[in-house]
Design a protein that fits this description.
Blueprint (H helix, E strand, L loop, with lengths): L1 E6 L5 E5 L4 H10 L3 E8 L5 H12 L3 E6 L2 E5 L12 H4 L9 H8 L1 E5 L12 H9 L3 E5 L2 E5 L7 E3 L5 H12 L4 E5 L5 H12 L3 E3 L5 E5 L4 E7 L4 H13 L3 E5 L3 H13 L3 E4 L5 E5 L4 E2 L3 E2 L11 H9 L1 E8 L10 H6 L3 E5 L2 E6 L7 E3 L3 H13 L3 E5 L1 H7 L3 H7 L3 E6 L4
Parallel strand pairs: 2-14, 3-13, 9-10, 17-19, 18-19, 22-23
Antiparallel strand pairs: 1-23, 1-24, 3-5, 4-5, 6-8, 7-8, 10-12, 11-12, 14-16, 15-16, 19-21, 20-21
Helix pairs in contact: 1-2, 1-7, 4-6, 5-6, 6-7, 8-9, 8-10, 8-12, 10-12, 12-13
Bound molecules: uridine-diphosphate-N-acetylglucosamine.
Uridine-diphosphate-N-acetylglucosamine binds next to helix 1, helix 5 and helix 6.
Length: 425
């Protein structure tokens, strides 16, 4: 077991490049199941979640290798061929493995996928995925924790999502790409990662309009051909480094960004008193703390609202802001798992239901804390960077799911962070 040992109190400075987006690359890898010929993905982040998806795909018969760091080659079995059951011991580790359901159904006519695991941030049902696929003509059943779906040929349909679920939109989008006729997804998710998937599918020959809006129209095609695609930058990793600059009173330039994707986070940091500047080329953003941070309220919403994945990092940030900040989580019902751990560092936070009230500014003092989930872990690292003395963060497997070389990147910005083996300390 390993832990991060952080000695806080050092303002971060310098430049850091963010990797390709975790939440974009996972659906792209699933979509490679439907592609005839080779798929090449560029800027693939080195993450545990990517390794997990590679294991799922290997089980389903996809051959993969890295041609260079970050360049992933994938070749899947021909249409109608290959395994249709995803392995339970891998799927339970990561909810995004459920994204193979739509592609398997579309290109092999059958799929067996266990109900997924992943971060413990609420019930996270898959009813919208299943309703959508059923509307396309799939017979779907749940037995012994396993979703079984089959369809001779999927047929386009009009689908209204009760909530703009990212995963459901992606599963339906992939399946509809090979369905017969037109599919309309209403109240679709408009997250950049959905748009990246649609762009990938279109480059492979799919016919999709409206991705990035609430209404997506898909005209099914008979097959998808091999392609090369660069994964969009990770807006949550970028947001985490922007928050790290702010919480340490530093100045950090984050490279490889799409400003449009970062607007909700940039707006909040500006409100809190940071200077946020975009490079002339528009592909880098500098965040500079200019004195004591001011508290603000944060409400998570589907894109283009404030991202739920940045909510925990902002809880940490608000502990160092003057005044009271109210954080409202509207996307997930149980996403304040970092609060008890932040309190161990000295935070004054009251969380009840979907609201957390953060009283600032409280001095933080280093302590031993446990990452409760991926983004909660990021919040603890941020708090550790601002705390006096030494903070140890354990359960790094959560952080490794979604942050590539986090300790190394922070050290590059002047942080004192060590990754150590627990048995050696
Ligand atoms: C994706 C992201 C995750 C992010 C989330 C919201 C990936 C791999 N993960 O997760 O990092 O936090 O979007 O931006 O892309 N819901 C249902 N029924 C369903 C599906 C979802 O009720 O069938 C609910 C969920 O319980 C949750 C809300 O919808 O309350 C949003 O979930 P969803 O957008 O589906 O998130 P994920 O795709 O799982």
């Amino acid at each position: 077991m390993e832990k991060l040992v952080i000695t806080g109190g050092h303002p971060l400075a310098g430049r850091v490049r963010v990797a390709g987006a975790k939440n974009a690359v996972l659906p792209l890898m699933a979509a490679a199941l439907m592609v005839e010929g080779e798929t090449v993905l560029e800027d693939v982040p080195a993450l545990e979640d990517v390794s997990t998806m590679l294991q799922v795909l290997a089980h389903l018969g996809t051959e993969t290798h890295y041609g260079a760091p970050g360049r992933l080659h994938l070749t899947s079995p021909a249409k109608g061929e290959g395994e249709v059951a995803a392995p339970y011991d891998v799927v339970r580790r990561m909810r995004a493995s459920f994204l193979v359901l739509g592609p398997l159904l579309a290109c092999r006519g059958r799929a067996e996928v266990p109900l997924p695991g992943g971060c413990a941030i609420g019930g996270r049902p898959v009813d919208l995925h299943l309703k959508g696929l059923a509307a396309l003509g799939a017979e779907v059943s749940l037995t012994q924790g396993m979703i079984r779906a089959r369809a001779k040929r999927l047929t386009g349909a009009h689908i209204y999502l009760d909530f703009p679920s990212v995963g459901a939109t992606e599963n339906i989008l992939m399946a509809a790409s090979l369905a017969h006729g037109e599919t309309v997804i209403e109240n679709a998710a408009s997250e950049p990662e959905v748009v990246d998937l649609a762009n990938f599918l279109c480059a492979a020959g799919a016919r999709i309009r409206g991705a990035g809006t609430g209404v997506i129209r898909v005209n099914g095609v008979s097959g998808l051909r091999g392609l090369r695609h660069t994964v969009i930058p990770d807006r949550i990793e970028a947001g985490t480094f922007m928050a790290a600059a702010a919480i340490t009173g530093g100045s950090v330039t984050v490279e490889n960004i799409v400003y449009e994707h970062l607007k909700p986070v940039a707006a909040k940091l500006t409100e809190m008193g940071c200077a946020v500047e975009l490079s002339d080329a528009g592909d880098a953003i500098r965040v500079t703390a200019t004195g004591t941070l001011k508290a603000t309220d944060v409400k998570t919403l589907p894109y283009p609202g404030f991202p739920t994945d940045m909510q925990s990092p902002f809880l940490a940030l608000l502990t160092q802001a003057r005044g009271t900040g109210v954080v409202t989580e509207t996307v997930f019902e149980n996403r304040f798992l970092a609060v008890p751990e932040l309190k161990r560092l000295g935070a004054n936070i009251r969380a009840e239901g979907r609201t957390a009230v953060v009283e600032g500014r409280t001095p933080l003092a280093g302590a031993e804390v446990t990452a409760p989930d991926l983004r909660g872990g990021a919040a603890l690292v941020l708090a550790g960077l601002a705390a006096e003395g030494e903070t140890s963060v354990t359960r790094l497997e959560h952080l490794d799911r979604g942050y590539e070389r986090l300790a190394e990147k922070l050290v590059g910005l002047g942080a004192q962070v060590k990754r150590v083996n627990v048995t050696n300390v």
